[in-house]
Amino acid sequence: MKKIIVVIIFSLFIFSSCEDDVVSSLPNTNVSFNFTHNWDGILIDNSDFNEIKYFNENSNELSIEKLRYLISDITFYKENGETIIIEGYKLIDLADNENLSYVTPLEIPVGLYSNVSFTFGFNNTDNIDGSYPDLNSASWNVPMMLGGGYHYMQLEGKFINSSAAEQGYQYHTIRAVDNSDSDNLVFQDTFFTVDLGQIIIHENSNIGVKMNVAEWFKTPYSWDLNIWNSMLMPNFDAQVKMYDNGQNVFSLGSIN
Amino acid sequence: MKIFRYILILLFSFSCSKDDSSSLPEYVPTPLALEIPILFEQKILPPIIPFSNPQTVEGVTLGKKLFFDPILSGDNSQSCSSCHNPVNSFTDNSQFSAGVDGVLGNRNAMPLINLAFNYDDFFAWDGSEFGLESQALEPVENPIEMHNTWEQAVQNLQATSDYPELFQRAFGNNTITKELVTKAIAQFERTLISGNSKFDRYLLGNETLTDQELNGFNVFMDETKGDCFHCHGSNNNPLWTDNKFHNNGLDAIFSDLGLGSVTGDPSDNGKFKSPTIRNLAFTAPYMHDGRFNTLDEVINHYSEGLQNSPTIDPLMKKVAEGGVQITIEEKADLKAFLLTLSDSDFINNIAFQNQ
C-alpha cells in the first residue's frame, strides 16, 4: 500500500511538472533595441559630429555636436489585448558608441506581438523631479522653474545664420510649459508614444529603431534656426512644434 | 560499526589538521567606507572605487602621509599638498604652481574634491589622465613639478624606517612600488568629499537662504539668464559639474589646445573640463589658466566677455553679443548664490590636514 501511495505521489509530481513545462514551453527572452540615427537616410554617428554638413528643410546648414535623448516604458502588445510594459528608461547618448543599445531588464515570451512601442521622454507619472540618480548624475534635469523633471532630448550644434556666421543652437525638448506666471505654470504634454508596429519576437531578438534627425526640422514645421535656436526650454510654442515634428522621427529598423 | 566511527573521526581530524596547517590567513586591511553626504546618496550614483584598490583604513592613512610628504619630489621640497592645499579646497591660490626647480606650469592646479564621483574617470583639465591611480603617477616625474624618477622615489621610501611597515599594513606587502604609492594616494583623495555647504543644508531643510541668494540660484537655473545648470549641476546634481569638456569662450585663438592636445581632434581644441563650482570662495584664481582672480571677473566673462571660436560650445549663447548679458543686480545675486556652495567644514576637516 505504501509503495502504491509513493508511486501515485511521484506520478502526480511528474505530471504536474510536465504541465508546467507545457505552459512555459514558449521560452521567455530578453529583447534588445539598437538605436541608429540618420539624416534622411545617411547614417550618423559621433564621427560625423562637429562638421557643418547637414541641410534642414528650411535650408539651414548645420552641424551636430551633441545628441542625447530618453526613451521609456517599452511596451509589447499581444494580439489578445494584453500588454507587457517594461518599466524603465534609457538615456541614449551618441557621444558613446557603446551606449546605443538597450536590453529589456525583463524577459518576455517569444511570439507575435501586434505592436511594440516606447515613450519618447517620460510620461508625467515617471517624470519625477530628481528621482533618478543616473539621470541626475548625467545633468539631465529640468529646472523647477520650468516644472522640474527631466529633459527628453538635447540636440546641439551650430548652423550658418542669416549673416553667414556660425551660431550655436540648442534644440532641447522638455514638457511644454508656459511660465509667464511663475506662480501658475501651465503645461502641455510633449512626450509621445512611438509605435513600431507588428513584430515577431524570437529568442534574443534585436530590434532596430531608427531616428531620422532631419525630421526634427521638417514635418509639419519647416524649422528656421535663425528664429528658434536658443533658450527653447521655456519657449512653449517651440516645444509644441518640436513635439509635432517628433511624430515622424522614429521608425522600425531591421529585426534580427 | 565502531570501526566505521573511528574512520570518520580519523578523517575529520585529518581534515581539521589540514586546515590548521594551511598557510597563514591572508592579511586583510580594515575596510573603510567613504562618508557620503546624504544629498549625494539621494541624488547621484555611488562613487567609483576600483575593485583593484578598495578603500581601507590603512591605505587612506598611508595615502594621506604620502600626500603631505615631500619625499616624493626630486629634492624633498614639495609634496602633493604644495599645489593642492587643503585651505584652498586642495588647489593652489597662485595662477600657476612652481615646481621643485622653480619653473612655473601653464595651468592652474585643479581642486581635489569629490573625485570619487567623476564617473567618466578622466582627470586633469584636458582629460589626459584616466583613473586617479594613473593620475597620481604623473606629477612625480614631471620635470616642472616634482622632477623625480619613480625609481628614486620608491628607493627613498623603502629606505625610511616607517614607510615599509605602513605599506605592509595597507597592502600586506612591505616592498614598495609606484603602483602601491599611487593606490594609497588615490584612496586618500577619494575621501576628499565636500558636501556640507549652506546650500546643501538649505536643500536638506536645515538652513534658509537670503532673497539675494535665492534670486542668484534662479539666475543660475534660468536658461534665459545665466543658464549655468547645463554644465555645472543643479539642486539635483550636488557635484556642481558635469565633469565634461567644453570650450567656454575664453579665447578666439588658443595658446593651449586642452582636450584637443590629448585626442588630436581639432574639434576638441580649446575644450577643458568643467570644474566643480563648490568652494569657489577658496579656489581663486579661476579657469584652467587661472586668468580670473575674482568671481566677478568670471561672471563678467559669461555675461559679456565671450570670445568666439570654431569649437565654442553651443551652450555659450549670445556669443555675438559677448554673452548672456545679465544685469548688475543679477550678477550680484548670482555671486551670492555661488558663495553658498562654500563648505568650510571641508577645508577645516582634521582628517584632511597634515597632522
Task: Describe the structure in your own words.
Chain A has one domain (27-255). In chain A, strands 6, 7, 10, 11, 12, 15 and 16 form a seven-stranded antiparallel β-sheet that branches. Chain A starts with a helix and ends with a strand. Chain A has helices at residues 2-23, 133-137, 236-246; strands at 28-29, 32-39, 42-44, 54-55, 61-62, 66-78, 83-93, 101-103, 108-109, 111-120, 153-160, 166-173, 176-178, 186-188, 192-195, 199-201, 206-212, 250-255. Chain A has three helices and 18 strands. Chain A has 256 residues and is mainly beta. In chain A, 15% of the residues lie in helices and 38% in strands. The longest helix of chain A has 22 residues, at 2-23. By secondary structure, chain B is mainly α. Chain B folds into two domains: 38-193, Cytochrome Bc1 Complex, Chain D, domain 2; 198-346, Cytochrome Bc1 Complex, Chain D, domain 2 (Orthogonal Bundle). Chain B contains 15 helices and four strands. In chain B, a hairpin with a 5-residue loop joins β1 (122-123) and β2 (129-130). In chain B, α3 packs antiparallel against α7 (163-171) and α10 crosses α14. Chains A and B meet through α2, β11 and β12 of A and α11 of B.
Q: In the CATH hierarchy, what is the superfamily of the largest domain in chain B?
A: Cytochrome c-like domain
Mean pLDDT across residues of chain A = 91
Percent in strands of chain A: 35-45%
> What would CATH call the class of the largest domain in chain B?
Mainly Alpha
Based on the structure given, which CATH architecture of the largest domain in chain B is correct?
Orthogonal Bundle
Radius of gyration of chain B: 25 Å
Short summary:
With 256 residues, chain A is mainly β.
Helix and strand topology:
The complex is a heterodimer of chains A (256) and B (355).
Chain A: H1 2-23, E1 28-29, E2 32-39, E3 42-44, E4 54-55, E5 61-62, E6 66-78, E7 83-93, E8 101-103, E9 108-109, E10 111-120, H2 133-137, E11 153-160, E12 166-173, E13 176-178, E14 186-188, E15 192-195, E16 199-201, E17 206-212, H3 236-246, E18 250-255
Chain B: H1 2-21, H2 38-43, H3 57-68, E1 122-123, E2 129-130, H4 132-135, H5 138-141, H6 150-158, H7 163-171, H8 178-190, H9 198-203, H10 211-221, H11 229-232, E3 245-246, H12 259-263, E4 272-273, H13 295-304, H14 328-339, H15 344-348
Antiparallel strand pairs in B: 1-2, 3-4
Helix pairs in contact in B: 3-7, 3-8, 10-14, 13-14
